[in-house]
Amino acid sequence: MASPIRIDVSPPKRYIGEVFFVGRNSGFGRCDDHYSVVLLPDVGDDCLVLGVITSQVEKRVSAARASGFAEESVVRISPREYRELKKESAIDCNSVKRMTRTFFDTISSHARKCMPLPKSVCLRLLDGIAASDNNSASLRQLAHSMKVALAS
């Protein structure tokens, strides 16, 4: 008698804020060492790549303000929220890039995976992406869709 087919009904992981320590010339778009954040949905081929995590919070906020970007587009993160940080840091959500998961999987092999961001930080990042007029309407819509899925 054939064994019954088992179907995995565990809930999807939703959207995960993966953090990677990226070395020089890795394909992430910068040539110096940095941490980079990627919001990866568990379905579909699109992911969102945010810029670096910087400890120069006030400098980043001032630059965003000077460029006319919404203050919510720079998300502050404390070491209490994310243990990998030594001091308060920020992520600028004004220059988000869309990348296919396939391409991301290729270049992420050159990076060290760190502890993922907590859900609360991912939700704030998605709000930051949606708040920035510098991001295309389709990126802001994708961020909104990701937030709805993550919040449910």
Give a verbal description of the structure.
The chain is of the alpha+beta class. It has a single domain (15-151), classed as SH3 type barrels, CATH 2.30.30.110. It is 30% helix and 26% strand. It has 4 helices and 7 strands, in the order E-E-E-H-E-E-E-H-E-H-H. Strands 1, 2, 3, 4, 5, 6 and 7 form a 7-stranded antiparallel sheet that branches. Helix 3 (119-131) packs antiparallel against helix 4. The termini are far apart. Mean pLDDT is 80; it is low at 4-14.
Outline:
This protein is α+β, with helices and mostly antiparallel strands. Helices cover 30% and strands 26% of the residues. The protein starts with 14 loop residues before the first strand and ends with a helix.
Write the layout of secondary structure elements.
Layout: E1 15-22, E2 34-41, E3 46-54, H1 57-66, E4 74-77, E5 89-92, E6 97-100, H2 101-108, E7 111-113, H3 119-131, H4 137-151
Antiparallel strand pairs: 1-2, 1-7, 2-3, 3-5, 3-6, 4-5
Give me the CATH architecture, please: Roll
Radius of gyration: 17 Å
| Proportion in β-strands | 25-35%
Q: Which geometry do the CA atoms define?
A: globular
Whole-number count of domains: 1
- Quick check: average pLDDT? 80
- By DSSP, the count of extended strands is 7
CATH level 1 class label: Mainly Beta
How many DSSP H or I helices? Answer: 4
Name the helix and strand elements from N-terminus to C-terminus, one letter apiece.
EEEHEEEHEHH
Helix percentage: 25-40%
Say what the CATH topology is. Answer: SH3 type barrels
Q: Which regions are unreliable across 5 or more consecutive residues at pLDDT < 50?
A: 4-14
The major beta sheet can be summarized as: 7 strands, antiparallel
